[in-house]
Amino acid sequence: MRFRSLLSRIVLLHIVAVAIAAVFLPLVLFWLLTSEIDHLHRESMQEQADALGDRLVQAADGTLQLNLTQSQRDLYSAAYGRYTYDVRDPEGQVLFSSRADGRAILPAGASSSGSISGARVTRTVGDRVLRIEVAEDLAHRDVITDDIAANFFRRVGWITIPILLVLLAIDIMIFRRALAPLLRASEEASRIGPARTDIRLPGDGMPAEIRPLVLAVNQALDRLEDGFRMQRQFTADAAHQLRTPLAVLRTRIETTGPSAGSAELLDDIARMSRIVHQLLEIAELDTLALDPEEIADLQAVCAEVVAAIAPFALAHGKDIALKGPDTPVYIYGNAGMLERAIFNLAENAIKYTAPRTSVEVEIGSGGAVWVRDRGPGIRPSERGFIFQRFWRGDNRDTEGAGLGLSIVRAVIEDHGASIMVGDLAAGGTEFSLRFRPAPAPSAAA
């Protein structure tokens, strides 16, 4: 499984770290505890050996005496059976011992044997060097120490797991809070498009490591906006500059009277004027900012389109009909932009529908519009290209420039709507548009 989210990767790494810590932390703590117990044991044995050395004295007759206090006698008594001692001369002969048999408590040179562990010190008493050894029977260790050492892993080990899980949950909340500026920046970035090139990523609250990236992205967006602006301006300027020469040329041809080829020239001029008009529409759509809360009456828009394009349909020996409710159908959108899109679809349908047939514009109560014709249809292999600018299929009339449907797509995208193309059972093409329904303006207010 691949984790694409930065937060999921961080959480995964922390889960692995917590799992490792949950295993090794109790082991480390257990080792530290046992090490500390051993250290305290050695220190205790060393102190006892030093205390015994302080009780060694040489009598006036030169003999050695070990004058133990009552508490020391009790500590090394056979009844207690936990601590033992012996005092040896350099030759290893035992001079004093807590054992009843008088033997050494540890083999010569050893600091431990089996469950017996102890410490050794050297003292000079008079002219004699003595070795004092004390030992503890670990089989009779202090009960509290045994419980701590034996039960530490079972008790403390399980305590560390919920602690680490709590730390993991805290880490997740911290990382979510730290990544919140990135989530806000991604939401802003999702709004950037050809119609909204003015949006920039917010830098407030952004981590210092991410701020250079945000700055670089904003600078790149500045350059892209400048490029878009220059392109749109060029398109608009070129279209404006072409309109006047075309109008003058058309007027001159019409004033010269009928002549050979004049009709063809007028048709060519009309076609070029149509292209220029569509280029101006594209330039205007690119610069128009749509208010996402604006509401339009889809029924009124379609009625206006049908009334405007009806003369064009009749002039071509075809008809156009409006179907659907007579009451308003409110959607989120700009009425002017919607009229352009539906007008282009209706005009395109009139061009390709069969002679003496009708184009239907149907309105649905849920904010849908269907535009149907009785033409040759659109091949499935071409449906992915029909909305591209200047694209014309091989089986299409070359009268148009391939801009009408691209204008429709631009309007649909700006409105966050959808458009689908399908074939009719009786022949022809159906364009289906679906917009976001909106409440009536009075209810919205």
From TrEMBL:
The record's keywords, sorted A to Z, are: Kinase, Membrane, Phosphoprotein, Transferase, Transmembrane, Transmembrane helix, Two-component regulatory system
Protein's UniProt keywords contain Nucleotide-binding: no
Annotated membrane topology: Multi-pass membrane protein
**Any signal peptide, and if so, which residues?**
none
Enumerate the transmembrane spans.
12-33, 156-175
Claim: Transmembrane helix is one of the keywords in the record: yes
Catalysed reaction(s) here are: ATP + protein L-histidine = ADP + protein N-phospho-L-histidine
HAMP domain segment(s): 176-229
Which compartments is it annotated to reside in? Membrane
An example of a GO molecular function for this protein is: kinase activity
Name the PROSITE patterns for this protein.
Answer: HAMP (PS50885), HIS_KIN (PS50109)
Q: Mainly resides where?
A: membrane
> Which Enzyme Commission numbers does its entry carry?
2.7.13.3
Note the InterPro entries from the entry.
HAMP_dom, HATPase_C_sf, HATPase_dom, His_kinase_dom, HisK_dim/P_dom, HisK_dim/P_sf, Sig_transdc_His_kin-like_C, TCS_sensor_his_kinase
Histidine kinase domain: from which residue to which, for each copy? 237-439
Provide the protein name: histidine kinase
The species is Bradyrhizobium denitrificans
